Amino acid sequence: PDCGGALWEINDDVIPRYRCHTGHVYSGKLLPGNQAEDAEESVWISIRMLEERRNLLLRLSNMQGQMGAEEANDWRRRAEELETHIERLRSLLVSIGKSGAKTAGYE
Predict the structure, then answer these.
(1) What burial class does residue 50 get, using C-beta atoms within 10 Å of its C-beta: 0-12 exposed, 13-18 middle, 19+ buried?
(2) Per-residue confidence at 67, pLDDT binned at 50, 70, 90?
């Protein structure tokens, strides 16, 4: 839910509903979509954080004159590893977006 709290199922209704300790209530029909949106947002935030770290490592690696070549190469290698992870996360988001659109009837 919006508060990030744990949910429990309300069993006294024909339509499945879920409630958190704060009082947020979701129907079984809306909850998966809300959770998917939250998960996607979290992955985008992770990508931005990884990109910032990659950019910092690249800037550090370009300052080779102020450090040894071995250290600069290590920063560059770490930045390349992060780029691999960033691309994997982006691919995941694209595939989630396509499957989510199919499930919702958009494709």
Answers:
(1) middle
(2) confident
What does the pLDDT look like over 1-58, one tens digit per residue? 667 778 888 887 777 888 888 878 877 777 777 777 878 888 899 999 999 999 999 9
Q: Give the tokens for residue 105.
A: 């009837």
What CA–CA distance (Å, rounded) separates 34 from 37?
A: 5
Nearest-angstrom CA–CA distance, 61 and 100: 39
- Residue entry with tokens 């691999």: 84
Interatomic CA distance for residues 71 and 63, integer angstroms: 10
CA 74/CA 13 separation, integer angstroms: 59
Residue pair 25/17 in contact (Cβ under 8 Å)? The answer is: yes
Task: Write down the pTM of the prediction.
Answer: 0.65
